[in-house]
Write a structure and sequence with these properties.
Largest sheet: 8 strands, antiparallel
CATH superfamily of the largest domain: Cupin
Distance between the termini: 25 Å
Strand order of the largest sheet: 1-9-6-11-5-4-2-3
Number of helices: 11
Number of strands: 17
Number of domains: 3
CATH class of the largest domain: Mainly Beta
Structural class: alpha+beta
Length: 384
């Protein structure tokens, strides 16, 4: 939760995907989950998505404005940075810094499947990443220092050329605010914004997924194709002679249309399974966290859990579910599991799950099988 004069319902009704909103003192006692030095250290690690952005050709190793260098970096990279004109951005902080996950929890009044990641940026005085627009919703939370935000809802969309970033060429601010630690600015998609560090500052960006329709349709098509038997092929036992051999006949077109209609299944269960697998897939092959012990049978796992206070989500994993009155589908990292609603709700409610509550939610052998697999695949980790 964060402090606001608006209820969640009022915010969603009046502002979400509609217009910007400034939350003053949203997190009045905010403490950054990591320091600037720790952020730089994280950017030096393999498997971390990090970027250094250089504003001008003077500061850029590539000799052009608004250039980007991708990590991992090393200490020498940071030792030779100029005093100004650059920013460090590190994504997926919640996967690598446990204390950062509590920030994500404050936004769970928005469905989990829409939450993308927590990015933290560091900037010296005067630095920015340029005026730009995002195609998704974002909450910009000030962690340390002061950043001045300029926004515009009516803007020229032309961007600078010969740059690594899409920076607006003719940005003119309509509103401006200085954000200090604990302040937060919400921006719906396609609002131009430009944040300039007034001193050394760190800013958290909580972004929300907004899949484009091309990607959704493409992924759904691939999902449907995977459900078809390999032996399924086009056939035309009713083939007849035609006037021109190169013609694709109207009869053939109608036949293909009918075939496609039969293959495109949009019933609730099909769409539920596709969306759950699509939205839970983190597209990450790296596993930074594993259980120390793998059990050969469910009973051994139960004995361990009975001696353990809590079990937690692997920070690299995403848990979602969809269900009816009794049965549910649980989705973890692009995989789907049939289980009871109570088990799915318990597993997904919190990142840290009390083991006695988890075991009590197991209703049948399907739940037992799912719990056993979630543990042995390291989706659920014994609390350290």
């Amino acid at each position: 939760m964060f402090a606001s004069r608006l209820s969640h319902e009022d915010f969603l009704r009046d502002y979400w995907q509609k217009k910007p909103y400034l939350f003053r003192r949203a997190f009045p006692d905010i403490v950054s989950p990591l320091s600037a030095n720790e952020l730089a250290g994280l950017a030096c690690s393999e498997g971390i998505h990090s970027r250094l952005i250089f504003e001008s050709a003077e500061y850029s190793p590539e000799g052009r404005a608004w250039s980007v260098r991708n990590g991992p970096f090393d200490e020498n990279d940071f030792a030779h940075l100029p005093e100004a004109g650059w920013s460090l951005l590190v994504s997926d902080i919640e996967k690598h810094v446990p204390d950062a996950r509590t920030l994500i929890d404050a936004f769970r009044f928005i469905p989990d499947w829409r939450i993308d990641d927590l990015m933290i940026s560091y900037a010296p005085r005067g630095a920015s990443v340029g005026a730009h627009i995002d195609a998704y919703d974002v909450f910009l939370l000030q962690l340390e220092g002061t950043r001045r935000w300029h926004i515009s809802e009516n803007f020229d969309a032309q961007c600078l050329t010969n740059t690594d970033m899409r920076v607006l060429a003719h940005f003119a601010a309509e509103q401006s605010w200085d954000l200090t630690p604990g302040d937060m600015l919400y921006l719906p998609p396609n609002v131009a914004h430009h944040g300039i560090a007034q001193n050394e500052c760190m800013t958290a960006s909580i972004g929300f997924r907004a899949p484009d329709l091309r990607s959704l349709i493409s992924d759904f098509g691939e999902f449907l194709a995977r459900q078809l038997p390999e032996a399924a092929r086009y056939s035309d036992p009713d083939l007849e002679t035609q006037n021109h051999p190169a013609e694709i006949s109207t009869h053939t077109i109608h036949k293909l249309k009918s075939l496609l209609r039969d293959c495109i299944n949009t019933d609730d269960n099909t769409v539920r399974r596709w969306l759950g697998e699509y939205a839970s897939d983190t597209r990450s092959s790296a596993s930074f966290y594993e259980n120390d012990t793998i059990f050969n049978d469910y009973e051994s796992l139960v004995r361990q859990l009975e001696r353990t206070a809590g079990i937690e989500h692997n920070p690299m994993s995403r848990f979602l579910f969809s269900g009816g009155d009794r049965d549910a589908m649980l989705f973890v990292d692009g995989n789907s599991y049939q289980c009871s609603v109570e088990f799915a709700e318990t597993v997904c409610r919190h990142n840290l799950i009390q083991c006695n509550a988890l075991l009590a939610s197991v209703k049948d052998e399907h739940d037992e099988t799912v719990l056993f697999e979630l543990y042995n695949k390291h989706y659920l980790l014994i609390e350290q």
